[in-house]
From TrEMBL:
This is Universal stress protein. It comes from Yeosuana aromativorans. Keywords: Cytoplasm. Gene3D superfamilies: HUPs. Its main location: cytoplasm. Pfam families: Usp. One of its GO terms (cellular component) is cytoplasm.
Length: 143
């Protein structure tokens, strides 16, 4: 199978840096288009009334972090222009939605490597994407 459009799903973790590096490397080798995707997780846009921070202000901080991360990662790529997507929503749904709309051939993402109780409580975005994606998913391990 030939991959001509590679979508790299990232967040602001160090694991995303590894996934981006692998994705860029693969895009070079395959002469593929590449796009970075950072889903601004609206479920994390919680205000703190005691600190005087509204949910809207919290969302603005998350958006700024996403923009900064996308810009930093895009600057690492030495090929053609990198497309950047920054939808607001839930990563588990918006990664798959963006891959469909952009017509990606491959999704690349990192994993935090959570196990045990933490994995049970927090879940795994990568696991959800793997289970529900209609296209291949490459997961770059944390270790």
């Amino acid at each position: 199978m030939s991959y001509s459009k590679i979508l790299i799903a990232v967040d602001s973790s160090e694991y995303s840096m590894q996934a981006a590096k692998k994705g860029f490397e693969m895009a070079h080798q395959l002469h593929a288009e590449v796009a970075l995707l950072y889903v601004v997780d609206t479920s994390k846009a919680l205000g703190n009334i005691d600190a005087g921070i509204s949910a809207e202000q919290s969302l603005l901080v998350l958006k700024k972090e996403a923009e900064q991360t996308l810009d930093e990662l895009a600057a690492m790529y030495d090929g053609d222009a990198v497309m950047k997507f920054m939808p607001e929503g839930l990563p588990t749904k918006d990664i798959l939605k963006t891959a469909t709309v952009w017509e990606a051939d491959l999704i690349i993402m990192g994993t935090h490597g959570r196990t045990g109780l933490l994995h049970l409580l927090v879940g795994s975005v990568a696991e959800h994407v793997i289970r529900h994606s209609k296209i291949p998913v490459m997961v770059v391990p944390s270790k």
